[in-house]
Amino acid sequence: MTAMGFNPFRDQQKSKLDIALVVGFIFVTLVLVAWGFWGQ
Questions:
Q1: Most exposed: 6, 15, 20, 26, by fewest CB within 10 Å?
Q2: What distance in Å separates the CA atoms of residue 21 and residue 12, rounded to the nearest whole number?
Q3: From its phi and psi, is residue 29 left (phi > 0), alpha (psi between -120 and 50) or beta?
């Protein structure tokens, strides 16, 4: 039987897609915040 749940001690593998998604979401968030301040 395998254990279920999140194991915080296992090796985390970051792919280039992970990094691209984080950068993309940060960019979208900054654009939306700027639009909220200076938008019409």
A1: 6
A2: 16
A3: alpha
Q: Provide the whole-model pTM.
A: 0.64
Q: How far apart are CA 14 and CA 20, in angstroms?
A: 10
Mean pLDDT, consecutive 10-residue stretches, the chain (40 aa), reads 77 91 98 90
Place of tokens 């915080």: 8
Q: Give every CB contact of residue 29 below 8 A, 6+ residues apart in sequence.
A: none
**31 φ, ψ (degrees, to nearest 5):** -65, -45
Q: Distance between CA 22 and CA 20 in Å, rounded?
A: 6
